[in-house]
Amino acid sequence: MPIVKAAVAYDNPDTGETLVLHILLNQKQMRMNGLIMDDVLKCLSHSSSHSIIIKEENVEILLQLKGIIFYFKERTPTI
Q1: Backbone torsions φ then ψ of 51, nearest 5 degrees
Q2: How many Cβ atoms sit within 10 Å of the Cβ of residue 78?
Q3: Lowest CB count within 10 Å: 5, 11, 51, 64, which one?
Q4: Do the beta carbons of residue 60 and residue 52 sit within 8 Å?
Q5: Model's pTM, two decimal places?
């Protein structure tokens, strides 16, 4: 199976800052690499942020939901 190095750009709607994020394939990998994956729906928990949190960068990426799939708006990075 080939190994892929990939990245996406995320435009933070609160700050206007663009972040280049290296792709982690699943929630377990994110958690194992120090990210906080708060995937509890807000309607099920008042304390949920429903986001991916990168503490050392002070970044919170709000998740959206389509059917049963969590996602965030991303794009191809540019030079």
Answers
A1: -155, 170
A2: 7
A3: 5
A4: yes
A5: 0.68
